[in-house]
Amino acid sequence: MLPNSTNSIDQHPDTRPLDALARAFLRTLAKEERGNLKLLRDVGFGLGHDDEADDPVERILAKTEGEKKTEHVPIPADLAAVAVLVARAIEAEDGLVRRLRREAPVVVITTHLPDLVEPVRDVLEKCAFRPGVKAMDLSGSRPAALKPTQVGLLIRDGSYKEHRPDVGNLMMASALHARVPIVGCAPDPTRQLPRDLLRAAEHRIVLPCLDQSALDLVIEAVTGGCSTRRIDPDLVRTLDIADLPIAFRGATSPDACIDALARVTAAKADYLQTGPALEDLDGYGAAKDWGLALATDLQSYRVGRLAWADIDNRGLLLSGPPGVGKTSFARALAKSARVPLVATSVAEWCASDYLSGTLQAIRRVFAQARTQAPCILFIDELDGISDRAQIRGDHVQYWTQIVNLFLELLAGVEERPGVVVVAATNHPDRIDPAVKRAGRLDREIAIERPDTTSLARIFRHHLGVDELAGDSLMPLALAARGRTGADVEAFVRRAKGAARRAGRRIGLDDVLAEVRQGRLAMPPATRWRTAIHEAGHAIVGRVLGCGTIVDVLLHDGGGQAQFKHDVDGSATLPQLEAVLAMLLAGGVAEEIELGAACIGSGSGPGSDLAQATTIAGDIELRFGLGKLGPFYVAPSDSHLFLVNGLLEAVTDRLRRARDRSRTVLEARSTELHAIASELAEAGYLSVVDIDRLMPNHDAFAPTELTSVPALNRGAA
């Protein structure tokens, strides 16, 4: 066992040859633990109390347990881990072990994490210096004369405003004069320790990360034995030292420690935040990609594998309409990153009746975030802080002070290592431009309303895996088109309530009733016509290579064939003419299958015919590609500019586009009917479904993908 013998550790296959100092530190801590246990026994507490022999229950247990073996005295797991890391950091510096005990070195230790500062102090006081030497705290404001039998320790975790380079230099001058060992320790010494201590430092050491061999030593220090199993390397990378006491408390063997580590680490995120992790959420697009990258970086930063300066995702401004899940994003991000969430809002800051109270609230929340770093600081309703350029009247001075303080705290990204600021707003145009300057919230991502497939997954999340398990949720997503994740949560909650009051399980119709709120679904005849119309768009767009089709769907107000289009500044006249044919193909498909087209293709400025007419007019008046020759008319003046022959040119171009659509659709009437039939039945066809229904098409790949407006027919 560790306290009594060196053999088990010396012979462990994974123990590094340079861990002699780590083993010595652990024995020193074990000796102190035995001394503490003996003291408790001497005063009549704990094991060995004489009254145990007279206790009837103890006598029963003694018979079943048999003779007691020599008891191993465990070292606290977190303290053992810190002892190993401190020993390795000291041992890596040539001659530092001897200098700490024989000379007067000045040493600065970087811990990266505030939580490790105090355990490092304990290890230094108990293990690093000569026996009998007393450690003196140098954090006071008045100089103190150190004696030859003392050492100076300055420990700062960055949680107080005094923890900065310009504070404590007078005390440090007095300590340096004493010619005794002086050690400073902080998560980020450059920004948290006195300037003169850094200037005098002869050794700058950094706590290494936990690895397999370090955990082997800790397990042996806690249990007295060596594990026969390996620890998953991915598990080691995500471990925090704070996980060790939780995992090892009930472990009875070295192998049980490894099992406990896996359980505790897997469940850790559940204790930081409730709800889903970011990996489980849909509909966040680029924001999700940003968040997952940050979560990976924060895990590396937390264990010391990545410097704060190397993390690029340190500030984000989330914008979007109400209900898209900006607050849920922050909670999920914190859970995925396994860090605390410090949540606040501008309304909370402004709850005070006085300016001083508001300023104090802002400082307090940033200070709280620094003490919990690494963490996510989430600020909601950021548009509540006015743009200074828009402030008028008697409140200019009031709001200017608030904005200036917020900008000061936001700009100090290097003064708050580990604090990632995520702010949310419904009105990004009202945010002071200085807030979005580089080094502050320099990344802005707009969260859009979820698309159809995302809505289906959001419905599944709120319904759970058991409710409507065998049903497709696409009808719910189609009916909820244009709604947000918050709306979906409300629909499901109300539908569950209605089913519960009726004494039955929830059904698809319950949720549909909540989504539609009395709105009628399309009649069968209208649904069939709309399916034919959208199938026409899909086929012609695919054959003529107008872009990449995303999906085709029917909703309560009409239909949509959605393309990612390549029409931009590099578009040519043939490409524009293909788009015209695709836009007009819906009405042509109705004529082919039903004998006549309905008025839906031209009902409004966003309709198929309106879009086609705009493009055909732009070909003549703006792009210089029409029959009237190369000239340009500004869009604001186009309604006044009636060139002779313009209407005839536009009409002729649209007529030829219709004829081209008809040629394509008549040649593919079987595919038109098949796509329309399946769309009318399912309400949704993905690009995979389209590929299956029309395997042979003469489409060419677009050079660049950009979104085009949805092709709607009828009211949304």
Number of domains: 4
Major β-sheet profile = 5 strands, parallel
Q: State the end-to-end distance.
A: 75 Å
**Proportion of strand residues:** 5-15%
Global morphology: elongated
Strand order, biggest sheet?
2-3-4-1-5
Share of helical residues: 40-55%
Report the CATH architecture of the largest domain: Up-down Bundle
At CATH level 3, the topology of the largest domain is Methane Monooxygenase Hydroxylase, Chain G, domain 1
Q: What is the overall number of helices?
A: 28
* Low-pLDDT residue spans: 1-16, 45-49, 699-716
Question: Count the strands?
Answer: 15
Give an account of the 3D structure.
By secondary structure, the chain is α/β, with parallel strands linked by helices. The protein folds into 4 domains: 93-206; 278-446, Rossmann fold; 452-516, Helicase, Ruva Protein, domain 3 (Orthogonal Bundle), CATH 1.10.8; 524-712, Up-down Bundle (Methane Monooxygenase Hydroxylase, Chain G, domain 1), CATH 1.20.58.760. Helix content is 48%, strand content 10%. It has 28 helices and 15 strands. Strands 2-3-4-1-5 form a 5-stranded parallel sheet. Helix 18 (396-411) links the parallel strand 8 (375-380) and strand 9 (419-425). The longest helix is centred in the first third of the chain and has 23 residues, at 20-42. It starts with 6 loop residues before the first helix and ends with a strand.
